[in-house]
Design a protein that fits this description.
The protein is of the alpha+beta class. It has 3 domains: 157 residues; 51 residues; 108 residues, no CATH class. Helix content is 65%, strand content 11%. The chain has 9 helices and 9 strands. Strands 1, 2, 3, 6, 7, 8 and 9 form a 7-stranded antiparallel β-sheet that branches. A two-stranded antiparallel sheet has the order 4-5. A hairpin with a 6-residue loop joins strand 4 and strand 5. Helix 4 packs antiparallel against helix 5, helix 4 packs parallel to helix 6 and helix 7 runs antiparallel to helix 8. The chain is elongated, with a radius of gyration of 60 Å.
Length: 380
């Protein structure tokens, strides 16, 4: 029985020590802001342990029993104090949580105010940027208007010497441009550009008219020696004169170019010779695609008195296209083709290379070996 009392005393002492340690640990846990759920569980375990003590602790009979009861009572008192302190810590934690909640709300309010301020600053910056853009646009518009004003003044100075055909519409365009400039509208640029082009065309007309009159005068000294040449020359002269009378700028330029070409062609002098060189064909036979008829051509070239090639405008009979060239195929009769082919294939050369001659006063060469034929090709 004494052994049992000793063990009970030891158990009560250990329980007291354990409760003190647990109280200290609880204080540390609560100090770090941790939950107190584990503390409640330990308190329930301690209470259960106290109830499980032997009956002799509840009815002490000896001094040892009284000492055990005293220690146990002390343990219960310590447990009560621990519960009270735990309750205090719970209240402290609740206060800290409330403070934290309040602090979070304050930070949210500050963040909202900061966001609002930032948005307002961005809005003001956007308005400032728009104002700068508007100022830049106004400056650019003013620069454009100043430039157009100088252009208007320059065009007014240039308009005086042009013919009425271009002067009248140019003046109307300048007037429209002036009205738009007075309104501060950059739309004046279109009217001024129209006026500029009219003034340029009017000034160019003067140059074209002079060139046309010059070419007409020169063409009258050109002697046409056959009816075809005279007809071609007269037609070119008439086209130039008509364009000049109508003040047709584009038509006059084209007609003058045509007259220059006709006069130069009439005044040309060269010889047409059969090509007879190594690696070059002298005659060719062609079959037409549609009729399947055979046609025969001599390969010829135009050269002046010192042998220099003279280019001509040749229309290819097969394709209809024109080519500037000094060598082409001129249609010949089948009998001439056979003679030339036989001579070159047997002797390697052609003795008489003369094919025709182009004299001044004639539009086209005259071909002694191919009278009446004007069919030509530029490829074979």
């Amino acid at each position: 029985m004494d052994g049992n009392r000793q063990r009970a005393f030891t158990a009560a002492t250990d329980l007291t020590t354990s409760l003190e340690n647990e109280l200290k640990a609880t204080q540390e846990l609560l100090g770090r802001g941790e939950q107190t759920q584990s503390l409640d569980q330990k308190n329930r375990n301690a209470q259960w342990t106290a109830k499980a003590l032997p009956e002799l602790l509840r009815n002490p009979q000896t001094e040892l029993d009284q000492e055990i009861a005293k220690n146990f009572t002390g343990a219960e008192h310590a447990l009560t104090l621990a519960n009270e302190e735990a309750s205090g810590y719970r209240q402290a934690l609740a206060g800290a949580s409330g403070y934290h909640s309040k602090s979070t709300t304050a930070w949210e309010q500050l963040d909202h105010e900061a966001t609002t301020a930032r948005d307002k600053i961005e809005e003001e910056l956007g308005a400032a940027r728009n104002a700068l853009t508007a100022i830049s646009s106004l400056q650019a518009t003013q620069t454009t208007l100043d430039k157009l004003g100088r252009l208007w003044q320059s065009l007014n100075e240039q308009i005086g010497g042009i013919p009425a055909k271009w002067k009248v519409p140019a003046q109307a365009s300048l007037a429209a441009g002036a009205a738009l400039l007075a309104q501060g509208s950059s739309g004046a640029e279109n009217s001024l550009q129209v006026a500029r082009q009219l003034i340029r065309d009017g000034a160019k007309w003067g140059e074209t008219a002079v060139a046309g009159q010059t070419e007409l005068a020169a063409s009258r000294a050109c002697v046409a020696r056959d009816a075809d040449t005279q007809m071609a020359l007269s037609a070119a002269q008439t086209a130039v004169q008509q364009a000049l009378d109508e003040q047709d700028l584009a038509g006059a330029a084209k007609a003058v170019s045509g007259l220059q070409r006709i006069v130069a062609q009439i005044n040309q002098a060269y010889e047409v010779r059969i090509v007879c060189r190594t690696g070059r064909r002298s005659v060719v036979q062609r079959t037409e695609h549609n009729s399947h008829a055979n046609r025969y051509y001599a390969i010829v070239e135009s050269v002046n008195h010192d042998g220099t090639p003279v280019k001509r405008s040749i229309q290819n009979r097969e394709s209809g296209t024109f080519l500037e060239t000094a060598m082409w195929g001129q249609e010949i009769p089948q009998t001439l083709y056979q003679e030339l082919y036989h001579e070159k294939s047997t002797t390697g050369a052609i003795q008489d290379l003369s094919f025709g001659v182009k004299e001044p006063g004639y539009l086209e060469p005259r071909y002694a070996k191919a009278p009446g034929s004007n069919h030509e090709i530029t490829s074979w």
